[in-house]
Amino acid sequence: MIPTSLPGSPFIAYREGSLFVEDVRLADLAREHGTPVYVYSQAAMLAALAAYQRGFEGRKVQICYAMKANSSLAVLQLFARQGCGFDIVSGGELQRVLAAGGDASKVIFSGVGKTRAEMRQALQAGIGCFNVESESELEVLNDVATSLGQRAPVSIRVNPNVDPKTHPYISTGLKGNKFGVAHERTVATYQRAAALPGLRVVGIDCHIGSQITEETPYLDAVDRMLDLVRDIEAAGIAIHHIDFGGGLGINYNGDAPPAADALWTKLLAKLDARGYGDRQFMIEPGRSLVGNAGVCVTEVLYVKPGEQKNFCIVDAAMNDLPRPAMYQAFHAIVPLEASAPAGGGGEHVYDVVGPICESGDWIGRDRRLAVQPGDQLAVLSAGAYCSSMGSNYNTRSRPAEVLVNGAKAHLIRSRESVEDTFRCEKLAP
Ligand code: LLP
User: Where do the annotations place substrate binding (predicted)?
Assistant: First the structure.
């Protein structure tokens, strides 16, 4: 049985019983590139971006794609061509942005553990802003910038202490989290930043968490941020931009997050009401731009009935798609072809698991499927934090990736060879 409606993107849908990404049949891509393979819809990414752009129409906004969600070069290139900047968290990500043709001046650098070398690299590239996460980081950045004869543009990332009501591993704006400077320390931290010769205060930043499906945490964060902007400016320090971070959730399993345009219409009304609507804003969306634009296609290797559980063993594993193992995350799993498999034993409830030698290696639990070896399945909503979080555990090569645009499919990453996985290693003498 095929699901009548799939969670996620309208660009990923069945046509006459076959699953398509835009105008390309996934079974054709699986045949050409093998499995597991990631397939992304360009139209779905552009539609997700357009929802933000609609919400911000007529406002001064820089959208900085949080590239950790999916850092494949062709995905970065797509967003760079649409005028996006990038939220980065490492020197490696900066190098990717530049390799993809991104504009360094639209890059903002987040993260609690920036090294001196990364600061130097980012200053030399001329990035737009450092989102500084602690008082000691301010001092180090001042030092590095001074040694280069530069003034580093900075925002302080504020921890607004609001509960985003999401998985604890992806909550970032609560007092107990490692991120940002405590609300109560913010004005003093700005005063210190303004006094340091190697720094130039340009903005304020927050990010409260990820996969947020309610409006309230955002509305609360806006209020807390504006209170701070008022206090910092009263202390004589101008704030040129306000960065609200990312975090908007997507539909994995009937989740109903607000649409980006509807959310921002509301948030902007609040900003207007408080007299801040004409400011320069930044946002750092990741998941909501790419998550529902991707699928991971995998092949059933074995079907293993058991006394307590039936297992459907597939060729994708926790190294390829770590979210279920890491966060007990749900990804819908659907067949590529709707026709009931010839000789198949009908529908059963399975745990869909990978070949890795760990019980935590599962992709989906208790899924009703009619499958037999050789069938192909699509793991949905796999555009964000799947490929980018992949590893080579069990010496498994990283999957190929394909970007679909209408009826065209472009291979944007070839399947890694095993030699690639140990290229940096050496035998001892
Ligand atoms: N800005 C900062 C500073 C962040 O730390 C993050 C995500 C974002 C923006 C983008 O958030 P988004 O719009 O994607 O929610 N691996 C986890 C998610 C980790 C999110 C980390 N920070 C997962 O698979 O659910």
Answer: 287, 323, 327, 358, 385
Q: Is 286 annotated as a binding residue?
A: yes
User: Helix, strand or coil for residue 314?
Assistant: strand
Residue 121 alpha carbon to ligand 1 centre in Å: 23
pLDDT tens for each residue of 266-302:
999 999 999 999 999 999 999 999 999 999 999 999 9
Residue carrying the six token digits 């990804």: 331
CB half-sphere exposure, 327, CA atoms < 13 A: 17
Question: Is 357 labeled as catalytic in the residue annotation?
Answer: yes
Instruction: From the CA of 286, give the closest atom in ligand 1.
Output: 14
The phi and psi torsions of 419 (rounded to 5 degrees) equal: -60, -40
Residue among 44, 42, 47 at smallest CA distance from 78: 42
Q: Which ligand 1 atom is nearest residue 322's CA?
A: 24
- What one-character DSSP code corresponds to residue 417? P
97 CA to centre of ligand 1 in angstroms: 17
**Ligand 1, CB within 6 Å, residue ranges:** 66, 69, 87, 110, 170, 172, 207, 210-211, 245-248, 284-288, 323, 327, 385
How many Å lie between the centroid of ligand 1 and the Cα of residue 246?
7
Annotated binding residue 15: no
Which residue shows structure tokens 């607000």?
A: 258
Sign of CA dihedral 300, 302, 303, 304: negative
C-alpha angle 357-359-361 in degrees, rounded to nearest 5: 75
Q: Rounded to whole angstroms, what are the CA distances from 14 to 9, 18, 21, 316, 348?
A: 12, 5, 9, 22, 22
Condensed to tens digits (0 to 9), the pLDDT of residues 323-373 reads 999 999 999 999 999 875 555 668 999 999 999 999 999 999 999 999 999
Q: Are the C-beta atoms of 207 and 225 separated by less than 8 Å?
A: no
Residue 397 DSSP class: P
Long-range contacts of 116-123 (CB under 8 A, 24+ apart): 116/140, 116/143, 116/144, 117/91, 118/90, 118/91, 118/94, 119/144, 119/145, 119/152, 120/144, 120/148, 121/91, 121/94, 122/91, 122/94, 123/148, 123/150, 123/152
Q: The pTM is what?
A: 0.96
Take residue 22 and report the two structure tokens written for it: 């835009």
247 is in an annotated binding site: yes
Q: Which of the following is catalytic: 84, 296, 312, 357?
A: 357
**Which contiguous run of DSSP H or E holds residue 42?**
helix 42-55
Phi, psi angle pair for 313, to nearest 5°: -95, 120
